[in-house]
Specification:
74 residues, mainly alpha, 57% helix, 0% strand
Length: 74
């Protein structure tokens, strides 16, 4: 009976970790496995990690209207 309970809980947390990993641009298969084995611990660690490919420091786009001019001399 314990094996069935462990499998159901593992599948639930594996699916939750896989979905959260997709939202944070991380590897879904690896996080599914970690979620299956470590359940709530893996999910907590995943939510604490920053997203991959997003620079949290450079999110100020207030200077995005600045023109960049290139001068070509011949």
């Amino acid at each position: 009976m314990f094996g069935l309970w462990f499998s159901i809980v593992g599948l639930i947390f594996g699916a939750l970790c896989s979905f959260a990993a997709k939202e944070k641009n991380r590897a879904q298969k690896e996080w599914f496995t970690l979620g299956f084995i470590f359940s709530i611990i893996a999910l907590g660690i995943l939510y604490l990690l920053p997203s991959v490919g997003v620079d949290p420091v450079d999110t100020d786009f207030s200077n995005a209207d600045d023109d960049i001019s290139l001068s070509v001399t011949t």
